[in-house]
């Protein structure tokens, strides 16, 4: 007797995966803000790197690209696992704006990095308290790097001024 063919199963989320509707509004907002902030750090740092005159600041800009690229890759994976879509924003106008700045670019860049990292540290500190253990773990893992970036940016700002 031929067994009755079973219908092909449809893809269902794994038990650990969740849909965007089950992710809290604050966690979705955190992931979107964090992705946008990380992309900004990468875009601005890449745009100014060739125009910076301070060697330490050039090294800092390269570290921003490296570290934020890695953090954004982790964030994208987390967002994908959670079913949160992070739109890739076109940052070409931001890149153009910063690449055209040459007057006092070192000071402008480091001032921007201090301001951006102050905001990022606050954002990630809040996210460490997320009720979602994956979001909290990502924030806890990334926060020390952001705090270090802020400290480095503040030190560079003080040495340039």
Write up what this structure looks like.
With about 160 residues, this protein is mainly α. It has a single domain (about 25-85, about 100-160), classed as Up-down Bundle (Ferritin), CATH 1.20.1260. Helices cover about 70% and strands about 0% of the residues. It has helices at about 25-50, 55-80, 90-100, 105-125, 135-160. α1 (about 25-50) packs antiparallel against α4 and α4 (about 105-125) packs antiparallel against α5. Residues about 5-20 have low confidence and may be disordered.
Kindly list the characteristics that best describe this protein.
single chain; mainly alpha; Ferritin; globular
Which ranges are low-confidence, i.e. pLDDT below 50, for 5 or more consecutive residues?
4-20
Question: Separation of termini?
Answer: 86 Å
Q: Can you give the mean pLDDT?
A: 85
* CATH structural fold name: Ferritin
Helical coverage, percent range:
55-70%
Superfamily at the CATH H level? Ferritin, core subunit, four-helix bundle
Order of helices and strands: HHHHH
Name of the CATH class: Mainly Alpha
CATH architecture tag: Up-down Bundle
Total strands: 0
Q: What structural class should be given to the helix and strand makeup?
A: mainly alpha
Number of helices: 5
How large a portion of the residues is in β-strands, by DSSP E?
Answer: under 5%
What's the number of structural domains?
1
Overall geometry: globular
What is the CA-atom radius of gyration, in angstroms?
20 Å
* Sheet having the most strands: none
């Amino acid at each position: 007797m031929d067994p009755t063919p079973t219908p092909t199963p449809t893809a269902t989320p794994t038990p650990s995966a969740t849909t965007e509707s089950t992710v809290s509004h604050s966690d979705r907002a955190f992931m979107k803000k964090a992705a946008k902030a990380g992309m900004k750090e990468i875009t601005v740092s890449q745009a100014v790197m060739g125009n910076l005159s301070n060697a330490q600041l050039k090294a800092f800009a390269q570290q921003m690209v490296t570290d934020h690229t890695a953090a954004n890759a982790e964030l994208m994976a987390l967002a994908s696992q959670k079913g949160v879509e992070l739109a890739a924003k076109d940052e070409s106008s931001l890149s153009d704006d910063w690449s055209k700045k040459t007057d006092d670019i070192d000071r402008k860049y480091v001032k921007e990095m201090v301001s951006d990292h102050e905001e990022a540290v606050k954002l990630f500190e809040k996210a460490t308290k997320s009720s979602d253990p994956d979001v909290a773990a990502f924030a806890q893992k990334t926060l020390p790097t952001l705090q270090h970036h802020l400290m480095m940016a503040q030190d560079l700002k003080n040495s340039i001024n």
